[in-house]
Each structure stands twice: as C-alpha cells, then as structure tokens.
Amino acid sequence: MPYCLWCREAYSPAASWGTLFSVSLEERFCQICEERFQAIEGEALCMICGRDLRLLDERYVENRMCSDCVRWEKDGWKDVLQKNRSPFLYNEFMKEVMTAFKFRSDAILAQGFKETLQQYYRIHFPDSVIVPIPLSHERLNDRGFNQSEHLACLLEKPIQPVLVRRLHEEKQSKKSRKERVMPRSNPFEVKADEEIKERLEGQSVLLIDDIYTTGATLRLASKALQPLKPKSVSALTLARGW
Amino acid sequence: MKQFVQAFKEAGGWLFTSSSPPSKSETVPITSYDSHLNTSSNTPFNPNPELQEHLYGREWLLEELPFNLEIIQEHIAAGCVTLSPAICIDNKRPCCVRCGNVTPYLFSSYDCARCMKRCHYCRQCLTMGVVKQCSSLVTWTGPPPIIPSYEDETLCRWKGTLSDAQADASHSLLKAVRDSKDFLIWAVCGAGKTEVLFQAIEKLLANGKRTAIATPRTDVVIELLPRLQKAFPSVPISALYGGSTERIPGAPFVIATTHQLLRFKAYFDAIIIDEVDAFPFHHDPMLLYAVKKALKPSSPTIYLTATPTGELKKRFLSHRLNGVKIPRRYHGHPLPVPKSVWAGNWRKQIKNGRLSKTFLDWLKERVELQRPIFIFVPSVEVLRQLTRLLNEYVKAGAASVHAEDPERHQKVADFRKGTIRILVTTTILERGVTVPFADAAVFGADDHVFNESALVQISGRIGRDSRDPGGDIIFFHFGVTLEMVKARTHIMDMNKEGGV
Ligand SMILES: [Zn+2]
Ligand SMILES: [Zn+2]
Ligand SMILES: [Zn+2]
Ligand SMILES: [Zn+2]
C-alpha cells in the first residue's frame, strides 16, 4: 500500500492511465490531496505568461495577452520570454506544499508533480534544452538543495546548469516597489565550459522554476542567456499566482 | 578531542550558525582548531552562562543556535558541549535521534548541497526544522546552571477556593508528585482542572524542580499562559509553540505544545499533559517519545483529560496508574445530558438543498430565545453546504469555522460578542471554546468522526456558566451509533458519581 506524500495516509491508488503505466506507485499524492491543487486549464490563457485570462477583467486583456505581458513586451523586453506555462494555480494548498518543499527541505514532495511536469514538457516544450533557475551559493548551502533543479530532474532529460546567481539579493521588503519587480543589476550570469555553452546556440531553451510571480526572474535569466544565442527562451514553472 | 572530531566528521564536518550561513571562508575544517584547543587545558574553564542556559537540558540542531562558532568550539573543547549525529544509520536503516523515527517511509534522501553526498532526512519531525544526515544535535554536557530557589516565597498567588472534589484531587496529585509517580486527573469539562494543579506546581517550583505543562494544541498554550502568569507572578514562564519566540531560556516553568518537547532532553522533573487524548497526541508515537526524552529519568508524567481513552483508561481502571476522578463541575450543577434526535438522511438532504424539520424547528426555537448556537459537523464539505443552507432558511447570521480558516479566531470572538449567532464548526472547536448561554447541536452525529470522546467534549461546551448550567445539546442523526450511546452513558455516569 502506498502512502500519500503529503498527508501520509495509506491510500489505494485509483487505476488511471497514469498509474497503469507508471512503474512505481509509491511517490504520489492521494486523491484527496490531489484534488486540493487547482489546475490551470482551458484555452483562454495569456499567450506569454500562461495566466488564465478568464480570471481577469476585460480591460486587462489585449490580443490574447495579459496587460502585464503587454507592458513587458513594450518596455524593451520583447520576446525575451517566449512563453511560460504553469500547471497549477498558487493557491493556499500549493503554498503550504511549496513551503514544506522549499523551506523545510522536504525534497521528496516534488515527486508528486513528476507526471504533470513530464506531460507539460512533452506537449508544450518538446526537445527544449533544460536550464534550471539557480540559487545563490549561500542559499544553496543553507537549504541543501535547489528546488528548481529538483523539479528539472523530474523531467528525466539532460540538464544544462549554465546559469549562476550572484550573492544574496537584498531582502525583498527592503527594496522599493519598482526594484522589487526589476533589480538594478542582473543577478544571473552564465558560467559554464565553452562546449556546454555551445549546446544552447540556436536551440529552444526551457527555464525551470517553482513559481511564476512577476515574471521578472525568468526574464532576467533569459537576458543573461542571450549571448549564447538561443533560438528562444521559455519557462515551465510549477505554479503561478492568478 | 578525538571523539568530537569523529562526531564532527559524521555530522558532515561543517559548523555554522543559522544567523550567518557559511560562505567558503567561514566554514572551517576542524583541524585548524587544534592550536586553540591546547590553551584551554591550563586555565580553569568558565562556561558562558548564556550558552549554558540555552543548552542545558536541551537538544538543538547546530544551525538553530544563536551563538557564534568560536564560543561553541571553545565549549566543545572543554567538554561542556557535545555534538552528535542527528540521524544514525543502524543496519542500513536510518533512525532520527531527535524524534525517534525509524519508519522507513518517513525518511527520504537527496543529493545534499551541504555535505555533497546522498543525504537522508527525517520526514516525521519536519515541522520542527529539517533533520538531515549531515545535521548535528547539540547538547550540554558541562555543569548544570544554578536554578533559583523559591523556598521562602509564596509562589502561588491564586486567590480562589477549590471545591471539595478539586481539593481532594489536588492533595492526591501532590502526593503522587512527591513520590515521583505517574498520575491521571480525569475531570469533567468545567471541573476546573487547571486550579487542581496549582498546589503541586508550587511545591515542585519551590523545591527547584523544572516543570512543564504540555498540550497537543497551540490554542491551549496561548490560553493557559496568562492564567498561569497571574497565578505564579514571580516565576519565569516560557511559552513554546510553533511560531513562538522563546524569551526566557532556562525557565523553570514551561508551557508548550507536545511537539516543542522534542527540543528538550532530560530537562524536566515533572510533565503535565493537558488534553492528553486530543489529536495529534494520542496515536502519535513521536509525541510519546518527546515526553519521555524531555523528562529526567524516573520523573512523573501527569495526565489531564475529560475523556481518557485506550491504554490510559485501561491502566487507570486496572489500578496500574494512580489517579482521581472529578465527576462534578466547579459550579456543582450536573452536566447537560445530550438528547438524540432523528433527522433522516441528512447527507442526502443537504445535497438536495433541504434540511429536516426536526432540525429546523429546534434551530428556530433556539434562535428565538436569542441563544448562541454551536453546530458541529463532520467535515468541511458538510460545513460549507450547511452554512449556505442555514443562511437561506434561518436568516440569523450563521458563520463557519474550520481548522484552516485564517479568520478562525476573529469569528470565535464575534460569536462571543453575539454578532455571529450560529457558529457552524468542524470538530476543531470541540475543546477550549466555551460561550455562556449557548446551545449545541451535532449535525450528523452518526458520522464516524464523532466518537465517544469527541461527543463528550462537545457536550462539555454547554452549561459551563453557573448562571446557565442547563442548555441544550442535541445529536441529530440518521441512526443511533454505539459511540453516541457511549457518550450519553459516560455523561450520565459522571453525573451519578458526582452525586448530582
Ligand atoms: Zn494525501
Ligand atoms: Zn501574461
Ligand atoms: Zn525526526
Ligand atoms: Zn547533507
């Protein structure tokens, strides 16, 4: 009998297509917990950031894009981020699970998202080169693992960790509102062997991160990658705020 | 010296504090400390009193300590502080030293960026901060701090009087504590069990003994603290729960959630567990382990409950555990006995947007009498449906609370004030919250979540105030269950024993 990753209750796995073909049954959420996640579905998603446009007032929608993305594209960030997709809404339950995953270092929780993330990769970003968003050295040491790398590993494809993140960025709360969206200097830079750098040239690159909030982190990472001349940079994030 | 190097290596070889995460330059390999160590053997070592207070009788993770590396190093060298691996691998199976976990599926592992190895971590005690294979537990192995003696003082300034039953219980408890014997206080809801403890606590503290009241529930810690501070104004009391900040390290009197006891080791001379049958204490081997670890060897545990269950009840009834029953409320009136009322297939009814006539009639009558009404429901789903229906059928201001409701405390306060007339709740409010002049209904009393102890606790919410010792408590059901019968019998037996 498998145990739920979250509530740790023993449960009997429902026979679904997923469970029929997966080899291991143990590392999943039970059905009750699974239902507490809120999937982002449907056709009406922002072409760029993948937000559900039906949740927005009409005023904030333009050419199948949300007004945030429209602003990014106009403000000199055109095509920096081609497309983000997040399978889940960052609801209260996701927040709880993410807190345990990131801040309590309960690394195994990521396993529960494996199937979903693999499916998203297959459908939206086939053959993309995978680059996880890095943590700064200190934070990595603190936590013991990089949550984005952990999520990227679930895709079971080669990973190219070409980015590094400079020292602790200042605490969010100490910054002005404007800076919170966009810091003065890019914390990301490329650090890898020439041979690895070349693997990105002319390729579709897929950044992996846990949460899409303002989209600034992903766009900064993409900016840092530009010297490697990727064909495009997209992102797969586990969850996003509405 | 060799020993601690070993412990260090097993612990991953790193030392750092949480306030300053290590960068490459701060993380010092153990060998560079050798020169420093030699100097300490000549002069007598004076332990840092703050570190001593912080560590004595405790078990902290190294990264939890708010002291710098150098101080800790000095004390390790002098033998006052000992580091040990937090996770032992015994016969290839991991074991968490902090929480006692040995269940394989409650461990996991990953490639750790700190120790650069495949690193096991414990999933059982995660809420207290992760324990990894490369974590170290820090304990004090130097001289114990001097504990203030209160012998010449009257510590307990509580001015009330005990009922006869309370006085008897208080006396027996005092004797049990003196003899270091475990003890059960089986007191009905509203018996005034906290006051029963005062005499024994006073004696313990006066003799320089460290005492804890532990409870599974944070709410109870928060509620008890001001009452105990008032009763023992000269004693430093530390309140510990998830999210609290400890301001009085080394306090002789601690009020804590049972989880927080995990950070103690052989500290207490007595632990009183309030609401011992409440979730998650009972059935949780970790919390039992925590109590055992926090107590000094052969020190007593005192159990406090209105509804002892399982092993505890068995031990008491077979005289393997000493204890007393307080079958009578402080105000001397009998406990209101619950009535069972058939309400038909309530599950189907609410699904179809209907409510049974018996339930509605009772509700309307109580609303007209202007009484606050608790309605206990078996699940969050029923809670949502019923609250919606109530606002449709009985326009009397119904609100709902459940465990994850962020406005929970505000809503309870509004219910007390009377701005919320009907409070629909899951079993989270079965303990603790009392409102004078209230009535209670259990909607769907035949659901399996309502066992004897939950139903007795719910019934215990009613009639606590001497101005209104009666009050209605109705079990609305679709078929009487054994648990309902047991709860009723339990209450009637207590009334009989209390001679009321
Ligand atoms: Zn579950
Ligand atoms: Zn968008
Ligand atoms: Zn543990
Ligand atoms: Zn490690």
UniProtKB/TrEMBL annotation, chain A:
Read off the Gene3D superfamilies from this record: 3.40.50.2020
- Name assigned to this protein: Competence protein ComFC
Q: Which domain of life is it from?
A: Bacteria
What family does this belong to? Belongs to the ComF/GntX family.
Tell me which species this is from: Scopulibacillus darangshiensis
Sequence ranges assigned to domain Phosphoribosyltransferase in this UniProt record: 176-239
Q: A Pfam family for this UniProt protein?
A: Pribosyltran
Read off the CDD domains from this record: PRTases_typeI (cd06223)
Identify the SUPFAM superfamilies for this entry: PRTase-like (SSF53271)
UniProtKB/TrEMBL annotation, chain B:
UniProt domain Helicase C-terminal: residue ranges: 359-500
Q: Which Pfam family would be a valid example here?
A: ResIII
**Gene Ontology molecular function, alphabetical:** 3'-5' DNA helicase activity; ATP binding; DNA binding; hydrolase activity
Family annotation (SMART domains): DEXDc (SM00487), HELICc (SM00490)
Keyword Nucleotide-binding assigned? yes
List, for all copies, the residue spans of the domain called Helicase ATP-binding.
174-326
Q: List the keywords (alphabetical).
A: ATP-binding, DNA-binding, Nucleotide-binding
Q: Tell me what organism the protein belongs to.
A: Scopulibacillus darangshiensis
Q: What is this protein called?
A: Competence protein ComFA
Q: Which GO terms describe its biological process?
A: DNA recombination; DNA replication initiation; double-strand break repair
